[in-house]
Amino acid sequence: MLKQIKLDWEGFQKNLRREGTPERVFFFEHGIAENIQEEIQKKYGVWDHLNPNADDYNYRKPIEIHKFLGLELMRVFPPNARMAGTKALDWEEESEGPIQSWKDFEEYPWPDPADADFSVLEYYEKNLPDNMRTFAVLDLWEVVRPLFGFENFCFKLFEDRELIEAVTKKVAEFDLAIIKSYCDFDNQGVIYLSDDLGYKSSTMIAPDDIRQLFMPWHKKMADLAHQKGKYFFFHSCGQMYDLMDEYIDFVGIDAKHSFEENILPVTEVKKRYGDRLSLLGGVDVDLLARGDEKAIRNKTREILDICVPGGGYFLGAGNWVTNYIPIENYMIMIEEGRNYI
Questions:
Q1: pTM, whole model, 2 decimals?
Q2: What is the 3-state secondary structure (H, E, C) of 275-288?
Q3: Apex CA 85: angle with CA 233 and CA 238, to 5°?
Q4: What is the distance in angstroms between the CA of the first residue and the CA of the last residue of the chain?
Q5: d(Cα 36, Cα 54) in Å, to the nearest integer?
């Protein structure tokens, strides 16, 4: 039997602010694949009490999944509120994107933030449980890069840096407008930036280029969130720790997500930055996908032993709860967290 816990937004915030070791483990997920949610329903029947013919059925389903898993924060996907660098978010042409010149920049069909549809937030503003909040993902570097194509972007750094600056400004201003709208909703508890700055051995471009081109805009986003009483979370995969101090002290991120065992395990990040930064997730996705029960339990306990003391840690997968993670493995991690304190 899975030990039940009560959602606690105040406790979530105290843990986020690192106000001492929490009385229980708190959880966070960047996202949960739809088939995983379906598997949870099949195994535990979390939607059985819902009326599938009700107009709000699809709004209620994720609430029940997140309540069952003990997640105070739930990701939402408002239409037209996230700029895409290419026509499809799941494919990127690395050599050339749609913007290769100033002419392309002028003719590009830039989306209008006024077209964003916030009806999902309007619903949750009235119907989300008191101890839950929502978040949605925004990107900057992850949009600018595919607009040029990574290869062409690198050339433009030297050949036409002003064009890169103009495109970055255009995307960042869209993001800031969306953030302003998000901040109007009480249920939107977190502004969440997702920019994968690194790969296995270094940042994807020179750290100084990130500092000059992207970090000032990231700071503007964080400042706006904080001015409106929201938290600012930062997701970045890869080896970007040369910039970590600046993201903490200059940008002002409240928490970081995405940790890879072969780059810097979450336990090591806790030792280096845990007194200044809260950490989200960190249980290796490959372990959750292919590990056995003993390995998952042992690793989860190891992470909790190191990361829970003092506060500022939220248990979850190192990245997405991907569609290839067996539900049994994922629930082993959840069970370890439920039973830890």
A1: 0.96
A2: CCCEEECCECHHHH
A3: 45
A4: 17
A5: 23
